[in-house]
Amino acid sequence: MKKKWWHEKVAYQIYPKSFCDTNGDGVGDLRGIISKLDYLKELGVDLVWISPIYCSPMADQGYDISDYYNIDPLFGNMEDMDELMAEAKKRDIGIVMDLVVNHCSDEHEWFRKACEDPNGKYGKYFYIEEVKDGKLPSNIRSYFGGSCWEALPGHPDKYYLHLFHKKQPDLNWENPEVREEIFAMVNWWLEKGLAGFRIDAIINVKKSLPWKNYPADRDDGLSYVGNMLKEVSCHDFLTELRDRTFAKYNAFSVGEVFDEHEDTLPDFIGDDGYFSTMFDMSTAVCGASEKGWYERPHITANEYRDAVFSSQKKAWNVGFLSNIIENHDQPRGVSHYLPDGEVNDTSKKMLATLHFMVRGIPFIYQGQEIGMENVDFTSMDQIDDVMTHDEYQVALRAGLSPEEALESVKKMSRDNARVPFSWDASEYAGFTTGKPWLMNNPDYTRINLASQRQDEHSVYQYYRQLIQLRKNPEYKDTIVWGKTVPVYTDQDNLTAFYRQGEDQTLLVIANYQKEPQTITLEADVKNVLLNNCGEFQQKEKKLQLEGYQAVVLEMH
Ligand code: TEU
Ligand code: CA
């Protein structure tokens, strides 16, 4: 496998609306990010991915872009962006933007022109179909609920495709002019000195044509988008995208890819893959039900382990996955993957250890490093996210009471991770001097950065140690490149694996339960590199682990 500059990096995701507000309007901004660069440096971050900051009507929080060449005034302006890139560069931090090109906003001028003249140049930028007798071209359900077809404004006989929100019309990648527009835009940003892109929803760009119906999978008569996507391959589009853009600049690219199969993984992240890396979504999708969020069971310790190990095995010898426990589309990792009632500093550090010690590029989502938890929403009015509101309706239609529906969807709500970062214990958690656009997590006086910075045993300090260990010249090669070899897999609620380097072996053990557990070591311990709690209790070959204890050992 070819070594690339990004393999050793530690990345951090910023959700700009909720990171840091500097002008008191309650919305995070670019100057806020600039003001926190020293903080990110202190943590040890090398790459910062910022969710969309382009001009947008914000129907889907910036994932509906109306101008790819400008910054939304909510976040600042292009001077701020240039300054951010320059200041980041001084600190040896690369800026990664979100590339949202499966769709744009219905307020983009391309779509406005398409509405004016559906048969003209811009009509061909989208998927627009004639509809006779109300018969839609296909019965695909949009990701956010309802049909993916919507009447074209001003043309009741024509419908356009939107796999996401109706304010996010899909761009027609079959049209070479559209692809040229996209490549030019990507290169324009890369010329500005961007380190790379996170590529949004990219597996959706290739549609199965001609349109047709699929077997319905809910009683709305509609069918999951994936049923259409699995009939086609993105290969040609993604190869062209790579060759015309990222490859020319040696830029970093991380794909948002779901449901990828082992046989095509080399195409995505092999040496000459479409992307530098892609997210490992295996734990995020664990337990997902076609019926909706309300049907979703809590993931178990063994399921978590099996999902991680199977990804590690798939990617070994192929390329690098990017590891996450949460992002702006997921609940908080600690609430998602740890049992209810057992979310505490020790178990949070255990999860962090697993996240950082498996092979791959670690991405921290803002607030993860201080162990931010899900929000105890008490009303749907507190939730902004379009997807949560749709899933709430799905739950009601399935017969749940409003209370039950709220209880069930709030566990998965994307707003759990979208509430403002808890900087300190002052009003609005130090995020803004105004009123935040989305409520703070009410637990901010208990969980915030300011207090954890002073406490050497905090979750935050533990994240710093994990990053320092990863960058320690003595262990770096093993942690970055070493093979992940699962061990003790017949013990329940235990995730343990070796990282095998050239002439070094590390052993990572996590006791994923509140009861103690004992393991028998296969070799002698040379060094204890990390330990998230209490004593290191070894008697000869027996190692006794406390509940949620995690250790990283260098072995003889
Ligand atoms: O997400 C793509 C996507 O597939 C999501 O619908 C995902 O299934 C869901 O959020 C899981 O909770 C990307 C972005 O990350 C998301 O924020 C956007 O809403 C979406 O694309 C549309 O651009
Ligand atoms: Ca602001």
Summarize the topology.
Elements: E1 11-14, H1 30-35, H2 37-43, E2 47-50, E3 54-55, E4 67-71, H3 78-90, E5 94-99, H4 109-116, E6 128-130, E7 149-152, E8 155-161, H5 176-191, E9 196-199, H6 225-229, H7 235-244, H8 246-249, E10 252-255, H9 265-269, E11 277-279, H10 301-315, E12 320-323, H11 333-337, H12 345-357, E13 361-365, H13 386-397, H14 402-410, H15 449-454, H16 459-471, H17 476-481, E14 483-487, E15 494-500, E16 505-511, E17 517-520, E18 525-531, E19 537-539, E20 542-545, E21 550-555
Parallel strand pairs: 1-2, 1-13, 2-5, 5-9, 9-10, 10-11, 11-12, 12-13
Antiparallel strand pairs: 3-4, 6-8, 7-8, 14-15, 15-16, 16-21, 17-20, 18-21, 19-20
The chain binds 1-O-alpha-D-glucopyranosyl-D-fructose and calcium ion (CA).
